[in-house]
Each structure stands twice: as C-alpha cells, then as structure tokens.
Amino acid sequence: MKFSIIVPTYNRAHLIVETLLSVKKQTYTNWELIIVDDGSTDNTEDILKEYLSEQIRYIRISNGERGRARNTGVSYASGDYVTFLDSDDRLYPEFLSSASAFLISNSLPEILSVAFEIRDDKGKLLSRHVYADKFLNKRILHSNVMACIGVVIRKDIASGFTFHEDRGFMGVEDWLLWLRIGARFSIYHLPVVGAVLLQHAGRSVMHYDEDAYLYRVSVLCTELRKDFVFIQKFSDKAVERIKGHMFTYTALFAMASKYRISGLKYWIKGVFYSPGEVFTRRTLAIFKHMMLP
C-alpha cells in the first residue's frame, strides 16, 4: 500500500522543514510527499531544494488558497491512499504504519480519521482528539472533529470529492468535504494519536473577521443544501444544527478578540439554530472571555 502525503504551503519556510522531516521519520516507507507551494513569496523553494528526490516532490502554483493546493496535490498523487498535512503540523513516526495496519484489518475502507492532538508553539498539550466511536459520521454533524490532519482517504474518493476552492471559504473547506463524504461512506476512526496540530498566532484561522466568518456560514449551509445525498440522509435539520455551531464558533472568536456585543449576538443566534450549543465547552469558553477585563 502506497500513501501520498500532500502538504500545501504558503510562506512557511521557517516551519516546513520540520514538517518534511516528520514525514521522513515514518517507520512505514512506501510513501511519497507532494509539497504544493501556493505561490509563496519567501524562500520556501530554496530551502526545500536539498530535500527533493523521487520520493519528495515540489510543485509551485499561483496563489489560490489551501483548497486548490490540496486538490492540485491529489491530481499528482500516485498512492492508493492520500493524507493531508499542513506545513506547520507534524506526523508522529508510527502514523503511516498504524494507518496501514488499520486499513488492512478493516478491509480497506474509503476513509479513516486517525486521532491527533493540539499543542502550542512551546510544546504544551492543549487537547487530544481521540474518540470511543468506531465511526465519526454522527460526530462530524456537530463539529469538525476531524480537522484536516490525520485523515487518510482512498485516492479515487479524494479525486471524486474535492475541496471547495473559494478563497473566502478558507478554514471550513475541509469540514464541508468530510460532511459530503460522510453522507456516502463510513468514516472509520483510529483512536491512536498519530499527528500533532501546532497552535500558534500565525495560523490563518486565529484572526477574527466578522464578514469572513458570516460568509463561511452562508457558503457551508448553501453547499450542504445543494447536496441531495446529504439532505436525504441527514435532513435539513442537520444543516440548521451546523449553522448554529458555526455561529457559536464565530461568537467565540469575537469574544476572544474583545468584540463582546458581536460575540453575544452570534452566541444567541447559534443557540437559536442549535439549542444544544448551550451545553458545550465552547459556550463556557465564550462566557469566560466575556468576564475577562
């Protein structure tokens, strides 16, 4: 079994080598690494030159955001399965070995989500995303529990179901894809931490932009309602619940950025569409930020 690891990158010359080295440290050796440079203006290309080989490829495209960069990587992939790794995240050495063993023992399913953890830029553990569920199809209806890291998907499925390439939709394009795929295939979960997402100030989703957040809510719900298979399986109520989740997500970032009136407004909207949001850790975090000086 061959894996294609696709890394979109943009101006991450100071981080991407560590990401690349985490792939080279894999105990499973039948892989290819496809780095898609999304029009970087720093010295990414120069830094990567010494690492390129038949197994590690570099492709440069004009800037179009991560969705298009990932889709480009899939189009060049020759593996049986593809997995996505952002250029500021890391794989642990046993990631591919564990994924391979799981895929074989479960008759080669279409998609697998390997557990991951989140750490800050000093290495402090912030959270672990490990679930008792064998499948994540129901969980992803409530939030993007998969993110993009750790997802292993059969190449033909990845080619048939691509990331939304709208630049303004950045940050939610992966969740839309998992929701669409989850309406059609079982999403297996491997509850062994195989990768780490690094939380740092430079991450693009860490900055509050009200118009951008509302645009993502609109596009996500519109695209899901256009997906007949998704609506037939989960109904429009699932879209309303997802809208509520997106509004409380917006509220959290508004509160964290000290836009408290906006934060409260979007929390109320979120609870209107999805009353269950009242009982989430996110609501607790929202009101914690509200109480801060």
Describe this structure in words.
The protein has 293 residues and is α/β, with parallel strands linked by helices. The chain folds into two domains: 3-205, Spore Coat Polysaccharide Biosynthesis Protein SpsA, Chain A, CATH 3.90.550.10; 207-291, no CATH class. It has helices at residues 16-24, 44-48, 66-76, 95-105, 155-160, 173-182, 210-226, 228-234, 236-256, 260-273, 281-291, and strands spanning 3-9, 31-38, 56-61, 81-84, 90-91, 111-120, 125-129, 151-154, 187-199. Strands 1, 2, 3, 4, 5, 6, 7, 8 and 9 form a nine-stranded mixed β-sheet that branches. It is globular. The mean pLDDT is 95.
Give a concise summary:
This protein is an alpha/beta fold and 293 residues long. It contains eleven helices and nine strands.
